[in-house]
Amino acid sequence: MREITYTEALREGLREEMELDASVFLLGEDIAGYGGAFGVTRGLIDKFGAERVINTPISEGSFVGAAVGASLVGSRPVVELMFMDFIALASDQLVNHAAKLHYVFGDQAKCPLVVRAVGGAGRCYGPTHSQSLEAWFVHTPGIKVVAPSTPADAKGLLKTAIRDNNPVLFMEHKLLYNERGPVPRIADPIPLGKARVVAKGEDLTIVAYSAMAMESEKAVIELHEHGLSAELIDLRSLCPMDIDSIVESVKKTGRLMVVEEGHRTAGVGAEVACRVFEEAYDYLDAPIRRVASVDVPISASPPLEQALLPSCEKIVTAALELIGTD
Amino acid sequence: MREITYTEALREGLREEMELDASVFLLGEDIAGYGGAFGVTRGLIDKFGAERVINTPISEGSFVGAAVGASLVGSRPVVELMFMDFIALASDQLVNHAAKLHYVFGDQAKCPLVVRAVGGAGRCYGPTHSQSLEAWFVHTPGIKVVAPSTPADAKGLLKTAIRDNNPVLFMEHKLLYNERGPVPRIADPIPLGKARVVAKGEDLTIVAYSAMAMESEKAVIELHEHGLSAELIDLRSLCPMDIDSIVESVKKTGRLMVVEEGHRTAGVGAEVACRVFEEAYDYLDAPIRRVASVDVPISASPPLEQALLPSCEKIVTAALELIGTD
Amino acid sequence: MGEKNKLLDYYRTMLLIRFFEEKVEDLFRRGAIKGTSHPATGQEACAVGACAALGKKDYVTSTHRGHGHMIARGGDPSKIMAELFGKESGYSRGRGGSQLMADFQLGFLGSNGITGGGLPLATGVALSAKLRHTRRVVACFFGDGASNQGTFHESLNMASLWKLPVIYICENNLYAMSTNIKNSMAVKNVAERAAAYAMEGVRVDGNDVLAVHDAVHMARVKAKKGDGPSLIECATYRLSGHSRGDPRKYRTAAEEKEWEAKEPIKHLRKLLLKKKYMTGKESTAIRKEARQIIAEAVKFSKRSKFPDESTLTEGLFA
Amino acid sequence: MGEKNKLLDYYRTMLLIRFFEEKVEDLFRRGAIKGTSHPATGQEACAVGACAALGKKDYVTSTHRGHGHMIARGGDPSKIMAELFGKESGYSRGRGGSQLMADFQLGFLGSNGITGGGLPLATGVALSAKLRHTRRVVACFFGDGASNQGTFHESLNMASLWKLPVIYICENNLYAMSTNIKNSMAVKNVAERAAAYAMEGVRVDGNDVLAVHDAVHMARVKAKKGDGPSLIECATYRLSGHSRGDPRKYRTAAEEKEWEAKEPIKHLRKLLLKKKYMTGKESTAIRKEARQIIAEAVKFSKRSKFPDESTLTEGLFA
Ligand SMILES: Cc1ncc(C[n+]2csc(CCOP(=O)(O)OP(=O)(O)O)c2C)c(N)n1
Ligand SMILES: Cc1ncc(C[n+]2csc(CCOP(=O)(O)OP(=O)(O)O)c2C)c(N)n1
Ligand SMILES: [Mg+2]
Ligand SMILES: [Mg+2]
Fold first, then answer.
1. Which residue in A259, A277, A276 sits closest to A268, CA to CA?
2. Using a CB-CB distance cutoff of 8 angstroms, which residues of chain C are in contact with residue A56?
3. Of chain C's two ends, which shows fewer C-beta atoms within 10 Å, N or C?
């Protein structure tokens, strides 16, 4: 199969959905001529024109709010947040509006809205351009959260997110944009809430998503060299979350490790761990292990940034320790 | 000891700190003549004048931001957010600024800022006036989170929060304002990060905070009638969190239940559970149980609101089930 | 519809709003309903005048003080009342309460509990209306207090930049809760802010239903022509407290009196009598009819069932 | 200090900023530093003119494009450069990078990675300065793009309402990243927005260091008198890309040429020569000196150590 980058896959997903459905339009800072800070929307203005690829002023609160409004009356806006850190400026619109309107107003009100947010660290962009803030939204009932780790998933999940009749936070990772992978030319949408088993294994279950799924994949290979067989599950979507697949795996392996790039305390890993603890308590042979970012702001300096982030090495070390606790 | 309400205790705390330290001032909507939507600051304008009890326009983002700025140069602002739900409008200021500036700029920069936010449901105020959003900030490194459940704690912890040299999210609960309790006239500040053992017990540890500590206290009494002795720990502050006290208790009781009013998924309870699981795995005789709000927006209608919220009854039922799983 | 019938219609609707809100206050006092609510008493001319100038397919976004807007747009008083009672038969099945109701069939896209929250929503609705070439217009209600939110600035700028078909209608009732506009706005009038968005800003007597109607009508014509948004400031006053239990100590009796003299229903009533569009007897009949509708709404609400607990988790996602 | 020395001083500082930014671009190209950075090339007159008008005890808040402001305020180029290198000897010990540095001893309260984030901070600093009766003034830098954020509206309204001693200094360089102000602002100039806050708004040639100085000086006098805030728009242009790797395709060569002809350092240089404050030879010496400082900054940075991993968790709380 042809290989394309995560960026190209996203762009294809956007293009195809825009071709299929005239109600889809794009909104965000510098997404038109410039193609977005990371180039995802590059060229789409030429194909779809300024009516459907709309540059906004720097007004995160209101252009996300406007997207919510547009979604209520028949449009399907896809908003780009140049950095996920800026979602703090739009959280009222997502939490107090988008996430609640359908539940409260009933079937008359739907918010088919996608917010693409560029998350993650690893490029030395510093404290306010590197965060992974998905946990806030996993904690918010009424908004779906998706975080693809491969080009194929990026395309397939984005298509699904756009077709979904609910607000979806679609988290992209800046370190993944240049990753290449096989992507079918005619890609089916990938259902939300179905995890992907990246590697089969017996000794340990590793659950990850976004860039940390890629990092964990490397770790699985290294663990093999240590004679350990780890099962790797890429969550793909955090809400809905495919707890069943995780539980099933843990019933087999007896051990769970959750890897996430967000800060450790009260992160997504805590939820995954808790759910497994609640549903597979009797099958666990060891404590659940969380590998996550250290609870301090994300430094720009390379050694500090690396010290803070989870990595293949840290995952391997944690896995060996976890097995050791047997 | 004299008994006063939670509201009066907060007001006393504010008054005393304003008397002690001229750099303390109050900022918020309708806090001056009106005394705030819940009357906490009533009368303080008469004592301290309009220079120190400042009514703001409805501009949550910027008056919280202004408080952060003021805190950097020698003031100690105490901001009131009329409803905690509105913190979504100010989260950039807290997360991307207040929480990070000291870590990044070092000792030259301190943010001695308190944000008093009125959280919680139970008064049929509906989806956007009832939320408990503390989990977001527990997940954010660099901001402390405090949530008193009694008048004495309200006063003592508020005094400490005001004296603290860091940003503190101080969560008050609208159902607690009229609760009475003994409060020493001369109250010592209560250190952050020290939980309070509300009841001693052997069979089960219950961890709670804010209004749910009160609810759990009722449950402990009911459980007694069922012949069960529960140990109740009121966290008081969520960051720093007194994990040691919880672990110590769990080592004795072998069972843990966490009660919180925030939504269940990726809430504070998940973190508490995870920490205990990490640190007291071998002592647990049963799965950890979370009692929390159901993951849907908080309805205004009384029966739906009650169905969503944790309650004494639900805590008792969960406790009995938990013991049953033994 | 001739002028007579139009004016009589406004009068009926304004009375309906007035009696609705008075009944709600009464029900709160008697503990029959819970939560809170923000009465539009005294501001009826804004809601009725504005909605009368709109077309059937236009959209409306509203605020925390939304019962009046909803009634003016043709909303069913019984379903609004039932929502206040927290009943299954309410507009939001009891889920939203006073601050969160919608009727999309009427183009009424919802009241809103977040001050200033409706501004970007309305802007986005207008953007969608424009992109879909619908020629529909959006009327966005908000208060003087809301005009201090950042969303006001961001939204009006975008709407003007993109020439969106939206009419920003500010009901300036002098107060945001207890805060007088003198203490919340650096300028005297909200309309003065329009120039910062290269937008027309007009200030009208918000207690004069015709003045409001005419201003909104002109703004709508402009919007439909593709000439972009307008800002209309309606000078008005709420005769009641901000929400239930507000002692209104921040206002003087003199000020309240002054505004009571200017209140919109009296004003319209005089006009109707003067123009001989209505006799005293007819007036009494209209009032009686309005009261009956409200009484019926209360009966309907009381009779209705609370939502069943089992519905709690229904419909989180579409 | 006489006019001559003042002007020479401005010239020195402007060159220092220019060379600093050019060196940074060069270091990025060669992969010597990571992350990103926003050069102030071409905007030196804004930073230098404004800071020259401030007092020692005044405060400054800055933006993502902050190196120039910091140097103009007396910041140490070596510590700024070391921060870009991510070194322990940098202003933020490598934690902040290009967008987050501060020097409180100089009253420089920090650059800021959030567009518009500095506006409420500055407003609060001014509030504190006023409450503490310090007679200090706050200069708040921000861009044309930032003026579209809600915080602009909220902050200017509060500052005007409370008569705070703050000077809002907008560097209007025509673009926010790739977006021309024509496509982001409904009005032509940022200064036009001041009227919405009953505030004076002036527009000056931001490439004329004296014009900027004078405007800020007057605003400062006003602020110190207790007469409240001002908005100063400095018309300028960044000669470089928005940040590293920006191909600048959104600008025409003609436009860039036009602005290059107007760039501030050339302008000042001509003035100095014309006034005979400087000979050609002296000019060369000054340039050389500036380059040396920058070279020293690079050496210092290269020599400095990276922060030790063990410091990662230090100082989260004060
Ligand atoms: C974001 C936000 N801040 C504060 C409130 C609390 N609140 C509700 S209504 C109100 C006053 C609004 O004033 P205005 O916009 O003038 O409308 P009015 O009440 O006068 O109709 C306030 C402060 C809120 N609901 N949302
Ligand atoms: C809240 C936020 N939105 C977007 C960005 C990304 N960004 C950084 S600088 C910039 C342009 C800012 O334009 P302007 O305010 O005119 O300043 P200039 O870069 O021209 O100096 C953008 C969009 C950001 N850092 N913060
Ligand atoms: Mg008002
Ligand atoms: Mg600019």
1. A259
2. 158
3. N
